[in-house]
Amino acid sequence: MAQTVKIQPDIQFIRELREAGGDSLKACYQCATCSVACPISPQSNPYPRKEMVWAQWGLKDRLLSDPDVWLCYNCGGCSDLCPRGAKPGDLMAALRNMAYKRLVTPSIIGEWMSSPKYLPILVAIPMVIFAIFWMIMASVNFHGNFTGGMFPTGQIVYGKIFYGDYIIDPFFMATLGFTLFTFYRGVKKLIAEIGPKGATTILGPKKAWYICLLEVLFGEIMTHSKFTECGDDSEKNSRKIGHMSLFYAFVALAIVTGCVATGHWIGRIPFLSMLYLDTPLPMWHPLKILANVGLVLMLVGLSYLTIRRVGLNPKKQKSNYYDWYLIGVIWFVGLTGMFSQLFRLADWVAPAYIVYYFHLVSVFMLFAYLPWSKLGHLVYRTAALTYVRYIGR
């Protein structure tokens, strides 16, 4: 005898989902064109049709425990082919946007990241912090760098204002620790939500989770292989170039930052003094060259992604605040970093220090808020891909 199951839709969840970018989901009439059209959707329980059904019904718990939300690469192919203009790709993006907001605490940051009306708060926090650092250094006249006013004399060295040993290094190390710990909690919660409930039997040989992680990193993330499988043929290359350029820009800049920080501190040990590094590095130094290569890659990738976003047909796929916030912050990081170097080389004192101040503000905004921003998908998607590979999805 069949058992009746009562469905209790979460109306508030539907409203939030539409506000987050899934405003056209009611147009879907379940033709399944989206799931058929998606080249990377698995044959068993394909997406995004089932997500459209669950969203229309307000099945919040189903959607929040659905790993397939993170497997979508948002190419927009399903939205292009949807006969009703329901934009299933936008729905999947909206679900991820909601996940950024609720996965980790403090939840107030997720709330601030969800709307442009809170942008002044997000900007004001680092502006005030770094302004205080600047005023402290100027008031104590650290190392005799200041002879009056807010700008130090002599060669332009940003450490004269934002001193590394006691201010910038400890501050950003604490920020990094906060971000990593927040991601740890977010990934832990994500796996708990998308994991099967109850006992699970896996048939066949089972790979270790770290083997699955390596396969994901080297088989998908570092190669961006999925970008050549999904999307319109005319934009596959531009999406891949844009994302890969930006990805490897961050890799290059992370290597430079890590090496400089390590050399600066490890090099103070007497028998490791040959490793000591201090900034500014000469232009011919390998790390400086790598940093400038990373800068060029960043600007190239941003140009591709910005042009694509501007050219989207809003009837098929649209950009939301999460998209433009991330692109805007990274543009600010890249341009302020570039002009900080150019003004320093030109010996333009006031513009150099002012631009570097805003560079630190934008870097903080990029990384301190990372677990709640769209760029957080690098961590959450990697975790989801690893987990579904581990369980044989």
Low-confidence stretches: none
Can you tell me the overall shape? elongated
Q: How big a fraction of the residues is strand?
A: under 5%
Task: Describe the sheet with the most strands.
Answer: none
Number of helices: 15
How are helices and strands ordered from N to C? HHHHHHHHHHHHHHH
Query: What is the end-to-end distance?
Result: 31 Å
User: Mind telling me the C-alpha Rg?
Assistant: 24 Å
- Helix fraction, binned, reads 55-70%
What is the overall pLDDT average? 86
Total strand segments: 0
Secondary structure category: mainly alpha
> How many structural domains?
2
Short characterization:
With 393 residues, this protein is mostly helical.
Descriptive report:
With 393 residues, the protein is mainly α. It folds into two domains: 11-102, Fumarate Reductase Iron-sulfur Protein, Chain B, domain 2 (Orthogonal Bundle), CATH 1.10.1060.10; 118-390, no CATH class. Helices cover 61% and strands 0% of the residues. It has helices spanning 11-19, 33-37, 49-57, 60-64, 77-81, 88-102, 107-113, 119-140, 164-194, 209-221, 233-266, 286-310, 321-346, 349-368, 377-390. The radius of gyration is 24 Å and the shape is elongated.
